[in-house]
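Need the bound structure for zinc ion, inputs here:
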Amino acid sequence: MKIKRVRTKMCHECQQEKQTLYRVRQSADAPWQFVCKVCLLPIRTGNPSYQYGGTWKSKKRH
Ligand SMILES: [Zn+2]
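Answer from helper R.:
Posting the output first, comments after.
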């Protein structure tokens, strides 16, 4: 039996381990943060300076 390793990252906002995170920053001066889908919404909503830098997933395609 193979043990599958699930790689996770911690959401910057809710501090929970997630398998899919979104790389965002709240303004051009702010540092990049990884947040989950739930936490992405309030950051994105009503924030014209929000920037999206890609999606991080635990499963990588080769
Ligand atoms: Zn979160």
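Comments: Residues 9-57 form one domain. The CA atoms of residues 8 and 19 lie 5 Å apart.
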